[in-house]
Amino acid sequence: MSLLEMITATLTDNNIVSSIASTVFIILLGFFCRKKGIFTAAVGKLLSKVVLTVALPALAFNSFMQDINPTMLKQGMNVLVWGILIYIILIFISKPFFLSYNKDKQDVLRVLTIFGSTTFFGIPIVGAIYGPTGVMYSSIFNIGYRIFLYSYGYIKMSGLKMELKNLKTMFLNPIVIATFLGLFVWLFQGYLPQMSVATEDGAIQQFAFLRIDQTAVWLFKPMTYLAGLASPLAWLSIGSTLGEISFKSAATDKTSWYYSVVKVWLVPIVNIVLLALLTVSHILSVDTVALSTIVIMMATPTATVAAAYAISFDKEAVLTSNASLLSTITSVVMIPVWIITLNIIDKIGIF
């Protein structure tokens, strides 16, 4: 199959095209509603709060409600290992990109580059395209993200030592609790107390009592509805937030444009190259769904928490705001490109 045929096949894949269109259209709808005054300034924050405290925890937990097999277990563990290694790697390789800036700008730009909006921006897109398996991989990948965001990110931006409140934030927020609970059920479902469940074909199967998709459908169904809110509400919130910020002033900031290219273009490329080498050498193999999940997560714009650190500790607050806006716009444009690229990589058969 030629490159042109691969591109054509990707652009005619209804699942890919509809997922990209849904993302872009709903973000634009949020932007339109904010510009027209249909959404107030508080709507974006309110929607993001619902997504982070209700929808994403339900989405994360539900993604683990599936049978375990050796292949998925291996992929999940490889994603976990890479989710820790990549942040260590980025801590070192991000430095050369910003050597020409003063120390404060270097620190801010490096932290903003290392940590993207994987939870709020990445997971809804991954879920829309790659389904429960993609969400499960992204939730596992985010374990390393949260460890480094609330430790290295905080220390680098504040200049202070690690505080207890960050440990609480790291482990006691709803998404992390749902992720670890879901991961526990998925990993140990064969060892938990079992229940007999009648399947659709009339057969009787044994499932762990915490596999609520089988043992408590009455509970799983409302959680499915809540999980379904994650993507549209997140995209509406992103659009609404973009509608509040002046693009004109941010567009003249060359540093923010440069940062956006590094964050949304170069960081995903680093992941693809390194994972290709590790997969070919059989050191740390990932399949195309795991690769695609990781790349989309790393192509996300500035993390909200990282931006909050910069503003809270008065470190380049204006630069951070501009970088957040421009990287969001760049990411919205580039995510479809990355999805097409990843589909072509899948057809080539590198992974």
UniProtKB/TrEMBL annotation:
Listed transmembrane segments: 16-34, 46-65, 77-99, 111-130, 136-155, 167-188, 223-243, 264-284, 290-311, 323-345
Q: Does the keyword ATP-binding apply?
A: no
Q: Name one Pfam family in it.
A: Mem_trans
Q: How does this chain sit within the bilayer?
A: Multi-pass membrane protein
InterPro entries this protein is in? Mem_transp_PIN-like
Give an example GO cellular component term for this record: membrane
Q: Which keywords, in A-to-Z order, does the entry hold?
A: Cell membrane, Membrane, Transmembrane, Transmembrane helix, Transport
> A single GO BP annotation from the record?
transmembrane transport
Its localization reads: Membrane
PANTHER family hit by this protein: AUXIN EFFLUX CARRIER FAMILY PROTEIN, SLR1864 PROTEIN
| Protein name as it appears in the record | Malate permease
